[in-house]
Amino acid sequence: MKKRFILPLFTLSFVLCLLCIHTILYAQDFSRKCELPDSLSSPLDFFHTKIFSSWSFPDIDKDGQSPCGYVYSAGHEGTDIGIKRKEMKDGVNVYAAADGVVLWAFDGKYDRCGSTNDHPDCADPKRKLSANLNEGNTVCTGYGPYCKDGGQGCYWCFAGGNLVVIKHDASNQYFATRYDHLKKDSITVKPGQRVSAGEKIGEVGSSGRSTGPHLHFEVWGKTFYDPIDMWKPIAQRNSKFFPDTDSRTVEGKAARKLREQGVIGGFADGGFHGDELVTRAQAMKFLLRGRDFAIGNLKNNGKYSDLPNTAWFTKYIMKAVNKGFVQGYSDGSFHPDDPVLTADFLKMLTKTFALREDLPHGYTDVTEDDWFDRYAGVAQKYRLFPHRKNFVLEPQKKLTRNEMAVAIYQVMKLEDFFIDNN
Known about the structure:
alpha+beta, 2 domains
């Protein structure tokens, strides 16, 4: 069980105590049924995977319920995402959910709190809360124009230990986001620093009032300390079949499931166009969406000659390049609009989903000397290309949208990456 106090806003003339205590339950079989709005990206990588051991969703209306899943107590004001201590030790990155400027960043506190008795940094402060207090699990800002009405003379106190608060651009519908309980010395940003969506700001820890490693992710709506529930049920997304697919085929099932999960979309005419070829850029976008990486507004900045910073695909390709999932050519180009070849796609998929390499296979057109031999076994194990018979992989064959959809569907199904919408 986890308990955490969200400490109050103070003004020069009065003290307004807004105390919220909540706990989250560790659940091995939790399935997420909601998604973030388009204006916010994931604060963590792999939002759908089993790396996370627990979830607790906001309950702003204080009825003790959320359509998205578990809520421990009425009034839960943020989303808590728990991880295991092994993952914390290895490092789980936390990312800015939208563009903005860092308001506050506090670091340096003990990050393995299990109770308020574990360490002085885990204990509640003994002194009266005041501006610039830094004691126990609590940190306070200085006085400033932080009042809900925009006025001067307010400060905030948080029991989140190591934390970051980002104020977002006026173009974003959300005022700010808050990230609590970060790992000691992991915070990479400073107050006043401009950050982009998807930029690393720290790592998940267990600092402050916490009983286990987790991220408390809170979204403020229109002003300071205005917590809202930003999640929306995935069921709201159009889940009808593409009119040009057959629900009785594996291609039709794959296209529908991936559409429901937000991995792929259709064309202006509503169709899937399964026989069309997939480009290298499109393939990387679909794979990253399947693994649900936080993307952000990543720029090329001259690394590749054919990736303009303004192109829709640049942020996806640069995310994949930075992660080591794909690379460009020796002449400094990437060829984003070239059709993706089977061998290249296998490497992209294997790397993106962290699948085991060097699996055995029986393909007669792949030799031990081929660079893609180490990825060929993935195709056989997951039956990525069921219509390719007689143990022929066809590594240089250009991939269609149908084939790509089936391949991603097979991996997500067998590796349990799908969100349960039932």
